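User: My instructor asked us to take a sequence, write out its structure as tokens, and then describe one feature of it. I'm not sure where to start. Here is the sequence I was given:
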Amino acid sequence: MKTVEIFLVFLLTNNLLFFPFLGLSEALEDRSRWLRLRPLLSLWLVLSVSSLLLWSLDRMFLVPWHLDFLTLPVSVLVLWGLVEALRILVPAVAEQAGAREVLVNTLLLGAVGFLLRDAVQWFDVLVGALAAVLGYALSLAFLKVLQSRLIREKVPAVVQGLPLQLTACGLVSLALTWVAR
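Assistant: Let's start with the prediction itself. The structure tokens for your sequence are:
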């Protein structure tokens, strides 16, 4: 039951994707299915590997040696190393990421923090990573549909653009938080 709960929590609320949506709105434009899935697959790869590595470091070294305060710096270093390794090994993904890289790294750091806090076994880490990426993709799709519907409506010129996106993100965040209760 714990694994199912972790999956649902990460799928619905702990995916931290409303802020990256502001810079990733072009992620769901008309493109082939593979081009839309490639960033999500690389995100899942980095999130899974970094979470497993950090979970192992946390359980083997940081907690037994009472170095819990080093969790955040170690997380940042591991994520930075994995993102740089991915950039070197797969340069096409790095070129495509562009300006979104900072936002996605923030998403990774937040998701890894939640995974380390909630996971009891290594399988929970993988399930949580998969659920976070699926929640990220579903929320991007949901926000894209909501944004396209709001664009067709008559809204005052003052509210168009970024204020409308922030309002939509806030409403979706409230709705998903309420559903997760």
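For the description part of your assignment, you could build on this observation: The longest helix spans residues 122-152. Try explaining in your own words what that tells you about the chain.
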